[in-house]
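Hello again,

I reread your note about wanting to compare the complex against the isolated chains. To keep things tidy I'm splitting this into two emails, and this first one only covers the full assembly. Below are the input lines as submitted, including protein chains and any nucleic acid or small-molecule components. They are followed by the predicted structure of everything together. The single-chain runs will come separately.
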Amino acid sequence: MSELNLGFVAINYISCTPEYQGRFEELFKSRAGAIDTLPGFRHMHVLKPQVPGEENLVISYWDTEEDFKAWTKSEAFIKGHKRGFEDVKKAKDAGQEPPMTSSFKTYEIITN
Amino acid sequence: MSELNLGFVAINYISCTPEYQGRFEELFKSRAGAIDTLPGFRHMHVLKPQVPGEENLVISYWDTEEDFKAWTKSEAFIKGHKRGFEDVKKAKDAGQEPPMTSSFKTYEIITN
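Full-complex prediction:
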């Protein structure tokens, strides 16, 4: 963190198969919002690429990195990802490619 | 756009050479804020990666894609990028690699 802490951002970059994209959107549109109650959570946005096939972005804004890390170890995290994790597990158990893959990158806000 | 327009997001993914990273941050920290006056502009964040060498993200939020496009064709756009463009031109004129490269990707907000 720099001397002035403007905030912390985590972005989950999510690739979906064409068949899964609609389901991915549906999962987020019907999310229970457990994350919203976490300490240090500010807000989040789910972004769909204008170019089909590019990654979806789930951007969450936090007061500090510690707040974000606490979320990733929380019940809310497991609960919030339950349906997506199950979809991936189901494909794996059936010997299929996962319908989505994801990776987190983390950032410091340097200016607004 | 989907039936419900929650907003439009443009992300400029910017790679800097290690030598240029500090200058990049300085340019944004001292930005004149011309973009803030544009119709449909909501807010922006400049994100520095926690892992050195990954891309910086300049995220701008807009009411509509049209508002974003109007900005890219505006005086404010040229003015806002003047110093960065000059740095790139200077390197090019000297036969050097550009100190930064950038590319825009655009998104629709599907949920918050």
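For quick reference: Chain A is about 30% helix and 35% strand.

B.
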